[in-house]
Amino acid sequence: MTRQKRTDNRATSPILLDLIKSKAITDLQELPQVFPVVVYNGEGRWWAARDLADLIEPLPGGLARCRPSQKHWVIDEGQLARETTLPENNSFADLIRLEASPEPEAMRQIFAILSQRLQDPRYASLRRALVVWFNRVLIKRLVPGTQVPEVNDLQEINNMLAERVVQWTEQWKYEGLQQGLQQDLHQEAVNMLERPITRRFGPLRDETR
């Protein structure tokens, strides 16, 4: 008895299709289990559907069982950071801390830990991904509008943050002081204008002020 050759009709998932097309799976092998995970880092809570079936119009009668269904697991980083004590010695928890910790010193400590923990060659692709994430996302969030040379590995990130953490902290303090001074000057100008008007016309209503 021969087994019928199975082609792309075996799967609709892009991951499974890639495995089939690249011949990583033979025609006689079963497809591997895929566990879909969504990592969400938006400001509000995750509200969208968690099952493909919820996005498809229901079918009538006995056809309902033919509606595609694929659930996915949602990891809401904001909710975890707010409501859960994140575990120690856990790289994914450290990534959530990086998302929630814009201060350079906090980032430096986390990257120092990751640099030590991910030294094994099997983590090479993860280290590269973290470096790209730092260059394209985190550094722009840390010091927006500042040109910072790109780094090539986790140890360089640690060294750069160690060198510049004091400089950036002092810069933020100075910018905060300047902003506070501008606000004080603005309020003083408002008071100077309001005093003679009040003496002449009486107390001002809120909309007039």
State the helical fraction: 40-55%
| Whole-angstrom Rg | 28 Å
Largest sheet: 2 strands, parallel
Low-confidence stretches: 1-11
Task: Choose one word for the global shape.
Answer: flat
User: What spatial order of strands do you see in the largest sheet?
Assistant: 1-2
Average of per-residue pLDDT values: 77
What features would you describe in this structure?
- It is a single chain.
- By secondary structure, the chain is mostly helical.
- It is built from six helices and two strands; from the N terminus they run H-E-E-H-H-H-H-H.
- Strands 1-2 form a two-stranded parallel sheet.
- Helix 4 runs antiparallel to helix 6 (154-201).
- The longest helix is centred in the last third of the chain and has 48 residues, at 154-201.
- The protein is flat and about 95 Å long.
- The protein starts with 13 loop residues before the first helix and ends in an 8-residue tail after the last helix.
- 8% of the residues are buried.
- Mean pLDDT is 77; it is low at 1-11.
Tag the structure with descriptive keywords:
single chain, 209 residues, mainly alpha, two-stranded parallel ribbon, 2 strands, 51% helix, flat
Brief sketch in words of this structure:
By secondary structure, this protein is mostly helical.
